[in-house]
Design a protein that fits this description.
By secondary structure, the protein is mostly helical. It folds into 2 domains: 117 residues, no CATH class; 45 residues. Helix 1 runs antiparallel to helix 2, helix 1 packs parallel to helix 3 and helix 2 packs antiparallel against helix 3.
Length: 164
């Protein structure tokens, strides 16, 4: 009978935690959505062509964030079970909280907030750095004619996109 008492306590302890975890996951999704909207608004302000590339980056970001959140949530499940067992064996009342999931969600939201408030000039600077890196690669492999041809095609495509 003692065994069922522990299982009942586990079930009662996990319901509130599941609700907390679900709310944290929704908050992260909302933060990503707000960043996407801010990115679209900033691209319009810069007069940039908006393509599916940015949306693909957002989908990749969702995947990375949720991989991280699932891993820390799994760790939280283990620590919650350990705390519940410790509480039942020692008559203590340590809090049962998904602490790592809180930290992971906070980290993801902090990154999204930083991205939302990032200035257009910072994004432009990042693009210039990316172009300089590409140019460095091209110069490093200057004997590779195919790479130069692809760079010229890329520049032509960018100019066409800017005109649209």
């Amino acid at each position: 009978m003692e065994e069922f008492g522990f299982l009942t306590r586990v079930a009662h302890a996990f319901w509130p935690q599941l609700i907390i975890v679900a709310v944290l996951y929704v908050v992260v999704i909302l933060a990503i959505f707000f960043d996407l909207m801010a990115g679209i608004r900033k691209a319009k302000q810069r007069g940039e062509f908006r393509s599916s590339f940015g949306l693909r980056k957002t989908i990749d970001k969702v995947g990375k964030y949720f991989n991280m959140l699932l891993a820390v949530t799994a760790t939280d499940v283990i620590q919650i079970l350990a705390v519940l067992q410790l509480n039942s064996q020692t008559d203590t009342s340590l809090p049962v909280m998904p602490i790592l999931t809180f930290l992971g969600a906070t980290f993801a939201c902090f990154i999204e907030i930083k991205s939302i408030y990032e200035k257009n000039s910072d994004k432009d600077r990042a693009k210039v750095q990316e172009a300089a890196k590409l140019m460095h690669e091209l110069l490093h492999h200057k004997d590779n004619q195919e790479m130069f041809a692809s760079f010229v095609d890329y520049v032509k495509t960018q100019k066409k996109d800017e005109r649209l």
